Amino acid sequence: MLTPTPFHPRTAPLCRSHAWRRWAGCVVASAYELSHEREYHAVRGAAALFDVSPLYKYRVHGRDAARFLDHVVTHDAGRLAAGRVLYTPWCDARGKVIDDGTVARLDEATFRLTSAEPNLRWLQDNAAGFEVAIEDVSAATAALALQGPNARAILQRLGDRDFEGLRYFGLTAARLGGVPVTISRTGYTGDLGYELWLAADDALPLWDALIEAGTPYGITPAGILALDVARIEAGLMLLDVDYVSAGRALIENQTSSPYELDLGWAVKLDKPAFVGRRALAAEAVRGPQWRFAGIQVEWDSFERLFAAAGLAPRVPLAAWRTSVPLYAGGEQVGYATSGVWSPLLKQYIALAHLQSRWAAVGTALEMEVTVEHRRQRAAARVVKKPFFDPERKRA
Amino acid sequence: MANAYDAIVIGGGHNGLVAAAYLARAGRRVVVLERRERVGGAAASEEVFPGFTFSVFSYVVSLLRPEIIRDLELPRHGLHVLPLESTLTPLPNGDYLAQWNDHDQNRRELARHSLRDAEAYDEFGRLMHLMSRAVKPFLGMAPPDPGSLAPRELAALGRLGRQLRGLGREQFHALHRLATMSAADYLDEWFETEALKATKSASGIIGTLAGPRSPGTAYVLLHHYMGELDGVFRAWGFAKGGNGSVSAAIAGAARAAGVEIRTQAQVANVIVGNGRATGVALASGEELRAPRVVSNADPRRTFLELVGERHLPADFVQAIRAFRFRGASAKVNLALDALPDFACLPGAGPHLRGAISISPSVDYLERAYDQAKYGEFSRRPYMDIVLPSMIDPGMAPPGKHVMSIFAQYAPYHLNGGWTDARREAFGDAVIDTLAEYAPNLKSILLHRQVVTPADIERVVGISEGNIFHGELSLQQMFFLRPVPAWAKYRTPIAGLWQCGSGTHPGGGVMGAPGRLAALEILKESR
Ligand SMILES: Cc1cc2nc3c(=O)[nH]c(=O)nc-3n(C[C@H](O)[C@H](O)[C@H](O)COP(=O)(O)OP(=O)(O)OC[C@H]3O[C@@H](n4cnc5c(N)ncnc54)[C@H](O)[C@@H]3O)c2cc1C
C-alpha cells in the first residue's frame, strides 16, 4: 500500500486527471488537470502549490548538532546561522555523492535536514562521538511548496507578520491563518517561492487557508509533471534521475562526485574534516573527469530532421527521464538525463553529463533524437545553467 | 558631418522595436523615434482605471515568432505567454458550445451537439495541419517576387513551388478552395453545428470589413493551425501583464543591444535628397541623419504623409492609394467588480479562462456585417472576449476583473462620422448584447473604455484604424503587400525601408515584419 500524504483528503478530489505518481512510498498528483500546462504556467506566472510531504525529513538536535552536520555534509553547515538554510550534497568516504538536500537551522541546537532517499542509518552511523539525536520526522511533518511570483503576496495576506524581510534561503517561524509553520524561502523551481513545514495534523487547515487567500492571486495546486518542467529550467538535478546514489551504485562508473555534478561550490575544502574530504581534495587538484551541464537543442536543426520525414517537429511537452547520448565529432562524449521543451523559453533543453573537455559553455554537440522510429542527431549546444533565472528568485 | 546613427526607425510599435533590436545586435547604431509617450503602438498595456490594467488595443498574442523569442531572449526581459485554454460560445437558447484543448473533453462536448461533427473535427484538424505546414514557410521568409527574373527570386519561387507540389492532390485542392472560398462555405462542407461554423468562421473576418460569406475569408482559418508547427501549440496566448509587456520585453532587448529609444518624438517627414532618404525631421524641428530610415508607420502614412508624393513614382502612389484599410473593429475594455455570470454556465469555472465568442450563428455574423456594409455599426456585434485577470490576476486588484471585448463591426467610414455620442452608442450596443448572455454584467460594471477605429487612428496613428495596417485579404498579402514589386521592405526611395504590419506577412502581434525587414537591411549593407 502506498501512503497518502496529510493533504490527500484535499488533493484527491481535485485530481481530475486521476494521474498519480509514487514518491518515496507516497502518492502525489502527477497533474490535477487533464494537462499539466496550466500548473506549470502558475509556477512562472502566479503561484503553484505543491504537496512535497514525501520528502524525507530529519530533525537533528543536540549540543553538537552543528559540528555533526558540518562533519557529514560538504557545505558549511557548522557556520550556518539560525534562521538560514543551505543546500548541500553529502558523500561517502570516496567522495561520491550519496544524496542532496537542504539543511535548515531552526535554532542554536536544532536543524532539519531534507533528503530524497532515507538516510537515517547513515546519519546515525556517522554520529559516533557527537552529542546529537537524529530523528526521522518525515511522517509527522507535512510540507508544501508555494512557488511563483505571487507567492509572497499570498503569504502576506495570510501571515501574522511581514515576509518582505525573509531573504533567499532564509527561514522563519510564523503563523499562517493561525497554523504554526516554519517558512523557508526555498524551492525546487528556481522562482520566487517558499516551502512551508508544519505538523501533519495541521495540514488541512493550512491547505484551506492558502487556497482561500491565494485564489485572487491565481494559486493553483500543481503536480509533479509541472514541477519537473520547472526544475529542469532551473537546472536542478534529481537523485535517481540525473545521478545514482553512491550507496546504490553497482559499479564505480555509476557514481558521481559533487564536482562532476557541478556542485563544487558546495564543497568546502577549508573545513578541517568531513566525510569524503580527502578524496574530494585530491579530485579538486586533479579536476573532475565529468561535468553536469545545460544543453540546448538547436531549433533549426531539430526542425530539419522532422521536415526530412515530412513532419512538423514534435517536442517533449512533459519532461523525459531517460539517458540520451550526446556526441561531438562523431563520438559519444556524454549523455543527457532529463529534458523537456520549455514553454516559457521556447527552447528544447536538457541536463547532461559531459566529459569535462566538452562541457564548456558554447561547445557544439549533437543530441540523439528519434524521428519516425529512426535515430538521428540534432545539433545542440552547451549553455549556462539555470536556463531561466529570474531576478525575483533572490530579490 | 558623421552620422550619429546607422539607422533611424520611425515608430516604436512592436515591429519597429524588433527591427531595431535585430539591427543593433548586428552592430548597427539605431535610434527609435516614437510619437506617443510610450512604446508598443497597438501592443500596449495601460492602467486606464486605478488598479485595472487594460491591453487597450490588441489583447491576445498570435503567432509571436518563437525565433524572435529565442533570438532576443525575450523571457529574460519579462515575456511570459500564457495559454488560452478554450472557446465558449453562449447560445441564445440558453445552451452553449465549448471548444476545449483536451481532445476527449472537446469530443464529448461536440458530440452533445453533433456526433458527426465530433468526428469531423479531428479530420478537419489533420487537413488544416497539413496545409498550414505547406504554407508556413511563406511566413518565415521575405516574399519572392514572381515578376522578377533574378536568379535568387526564381530559386525561392521554385522552392515554394516544390513545397506546394509536395502536397497530395486532396490537400492541394483544399488549399485552392481555402484561398478562394468564404469561411462559411468552406466550413459548411465539414460541419453541421451552426455555432461551431460561426465561431470558426469568425477568425476569417477579424480586422476586415467582410462577412463570413465573403469570398477569401476561408484562408485565415489556416493561421489558427500554424502555432503548433513552432512548438507553440496554441495559436492564441495571453501575455502576462497584457500585450504591453510584449513590447516592453522587446524594448528591453533592444536597449540591451544598444538601441536608443525616444518617445514623444513625432517624425514630421523623411528627408529625401536625390532619391535617397538621408534622415528625418521631427515635429519639434530637430533633424536626425542616418543612411537608413526604417518606417514602422503604415504604408499610407509612410509614403503619402512622411515622404510625399512628389518624391515617388506616380504608379507607386496610385498603388498605395489603392491599398485598402477600412478599419472595422473596435475594443470595449471593462473594469468589473466581480466575475460575469453566464446564464448558460453559471458561476466561475475554466470557461472563464478562455475566449468567449458571441457568434451564435453564421447568419448572426453576416447580419452584423450587413449593417456595416451600409455604413452603420452592428446593433448586435460579433465579439471576442477574454477576461485577462482570470489568466493573470495581476491585471486587476484581488477579486476584481478586467474584460477585454473585441467587437465588430464598427466601420471607420460610419455614416455621419464618429462622434463621442456614437462611440458611446456603440459601447451600449456591445454591453446590451453581452448582458443578454451574462445578465449580471451591468451591475458589476465599474468602468468602461470604448475604442473605435477613429480612436485607433488618432491614438496609434494607423490609417482608418485598420488593426492590421491594411486589410489582410489575399489581394493584399505576400508579394502583393503593400505593393507588387515592393514587397521586400524596400521602397522606391533608396535608404528608406518599411518594417510594419503593412508589409509581409502582415498584422498581428508576431514581430515577423520587423525581423524580416531587419534581415533584408542587413543583407544589403553587409
Ligand atoms: C483594437 C486592436 C485589436 C487587435 N487585436 C489583436 C490581437 O488580439 N492579436 C494580435 O495578434 N493582433 C491584434 N491586433 C493587431 C496588432 O496589434 C497590430 O497588427 C500590431 O500591433 C501592429 O504592430 P506594428 O509594430 O506593425 O505597428 P503599430 O503597433 O501600429 O506601431 C506603429 C508605431 O509607429 C508610431 N508612429 C506612427 N507614425 C509616427 C511618426 N510620424 N513618428 C513617430 N512615430 C510614429 C505609432 O505611434 C506606433 O507606436 C489588434 C489591433 C488593434 C488596433
Question: Could you characterize what this model shows?
Answer:
- The complex is a heterodimer of chains A (395) and B (526).
- Chain A contains 9 helices and 20 strands.
- Chain A is α+β, with helices and mostly antiparallel strands.
- Chain A folds into 3 domains: 3-53 and 139-222, Probable tRNA modification gtpase trme, domain 1 (Gyrase A, domain 2), CATH 3.30.1360.120; 57-136, Alpha-Beta Plaits (2-Layer Sandwich); 289-395, Elongation Factor Tu (Ef-tu), domain 3.
- In chain A, the strands form 4 sheets. A 6-stranded mixed sheet of chain A has the order 11-12-13-10-4-14. A 6-stranded antiparallel β-barrel of chain A has the order 15-18-17-16-19-20.
- In chain A, helix 2 packs across helix 7 and helix 5 crosses helix 6.
- The longest helix of chain A has 12 residues, at 203-214.
- Chain A starts with a strand and ends in a 12-residue tail after the last strand.
- The mean pLDDT of chain A is 97.
- Chain B has 526 residues and is an alpha/beta fold.
- Among the domains of chain B are: 7-44 and 65-80 and 242-324 and 469-525, FAD/NAD(P)-binding domain (3-Layer(bba) Sandwich), CATH 3.50.50; 121-234, no CATH class.
- Chain B is 35% helix and 18% strand.
- Chain B contains 17 helices and 20 strands.
- Chain B has helices at 14-25, 66-71, 103-113, 115-139, 151-165, 169-180, 183-188, 194-201, 244-256, 299-307, 314-322, 362-373, 388-391, 420-437, 441-444, 453-460, 512-524; strands at residues 7-10, 30-33, 45-49, 52-55, 61-62, 81-83, 86-90, 96-100, 236-239, 260-262, 267-273, 276-282, 287-289, 292-295, 329-336, 355-358, 382-386, 401-408, 445-451, 496-498.
- Chain B has a 7-stranded mixed sheet, with helices on both faces. In chain B, strands 10-2-1-14-20 form a 5-stranded parallel sheet, covered by helices on one side.
- In chain B, a hairpin with a 4-residue loop joins strand 12 (276-282) and strand 13 (287-289).
- In chain B, helix 1 (14-25) runs parallel beside helix 9 (244-256), helix 3 (103-113) packs across helix 4 and helix 8 (194-201) packs across helix 12.
- The model of chain B has no long low-confidence stretch (mean pLDDT 92).
- Classes of the chains: A alpha+beta (395), B alpha/beta (526).
- Chains A and B meet through helix 2 of A and helix 2 of B.
- The complex binds flavin-adenine dinucleotide (FAD).
- Flavin-adenine dinucleotide is lined by residues 10-16, 33-36, 41-43, 57-60, 62, 266-267, 296-297, 301, 306, 329, 331, 406, 456, 460-462, 467-469, 500-501, 507-509 of chain B.
